[in-house]
Amino acid sequence: MLxxxxxxxxxxxxxxxxxxRMRRVARACEVVVVAPIxxxxxxxxxRGARWNAVPPVEEFDGVPVLHPRIFCIxxxxxxxxxxxxxxxxxxxxxxxxxxxxFDLIDSHFVYPDGLAAILLGKIFHRPVVxxxxxxxxxxxxxxxxxxxxxWALRKATRIISVSAALRNVAAELGIPPARIQVIxxxxxxxxxxxxxxxxxxxxxxxxxxxxxxLTVGGLYEHKGQHLVLQVLPELVRRYPNVLYVMVxxxxxxxxxxxxxxxxxxxxxNDHVVFAGSRLNRxxxxxxxxxxxxxxxxxxxxxANVLLESLACGTPVVTxxxxxxxxxxxDERYGYLVPFQDAPALRDALVRALDTSWDRHAIxxxxxxxxxxxxxxxxxxxxxxxxxxxPAAAGVxxxxxxxxx
Length: 404
Prior knowledge:
Strand 3 and strand 4 form a beta hairpin. Residues 391-404 have low confidence and may be disordered. This protein has 17 helices and 15 strands. The relative contact order is 0.13. The protein has helices at 16-25, 43-47, 49-52, 81-99, 110-124, 135-139, 146-155, 164-172, 197-204, 225-238, 253-265, 283-289, 304-311, 324-327, 342-354, 359-367, 371-387; strands spanning 33-34, 37-39, 57-60, 63-66, 69-71, 105-108, 128-132, 158-161, 180-182, 211-216, 242-247, 272-276, 292-295, 316-319, 334-337.
């Protein structure tokens, strides 16, 4: 498995949705995760100490996770990431193959991981499965990235998309939709389930007597927290006890500064809580503590936070972008609004706060989207790929072995 987006000792929430799928896939086959760390001279000054502090070898649920360093030039040369990524890993994978003669490369995000995986697959004569995730929406519009993405998708042995919306983006690049299998992400039904709201609020340190609107995600313009703050003064006039809670860290310091300025201008200090980043395993309390979950995001592939909130019985208000309408498929689960339409967002939040929701029905709907079901479908794709190609010498072309 090849991805730069995977939980590590310094970033335990990074790519948790990829790790959850891998965890289930690994129950029926032997998996090694290669999660490279970008490197450049003066790396710590450019990217922060967290990258250099990631150990070279870790373990996730019994699966080895390896963190080789890959050369990556920041700034204007990001269009070289895929090629440099592949070139950096050739010696590493040559050594790894002596101990783990992998049958297949499973890559996540088409760029740079997918492009690098295709190049490495050609070097090591291995099939490559690429899973499309949300970044393709943005990167496909970049002049120097677009042809690389198109080439990688054309050369992939198999393409999986986490939403029909992303399949359509690939189709716009000239990839036949029939080549793309849509397999949405799942939700951990044990971790995310309805629970007593008062108990959940006490666990999160939140007041019991407030109407709570929650957003979970990095604090930056793409996720749309500023849009909630834009309509919050009107919500306060209607609901004087409303409280907007943001779980997540700023991507850049200026991102939080912008939100703080909006709070000051709107005199909203008593109506906003910055909760910081929280581990995925405790997010269920935050969803359950809330009256409404709001994600007014610019674009998404498949927003797992929506499914997690619904699995806890909490309705959502989100934007009609990407895979969001595939998750919020009925107004029994929440409301969809256009991106950057402040009046529509305000009205949807008012309607959501005033609605008497069937929270158990919401949870049943979301919990039907299991990670086990997604992993079964992914393994079936792997089996088909391996059945069509001779296995490596001495290694059977099947996924029937025990997980490592």
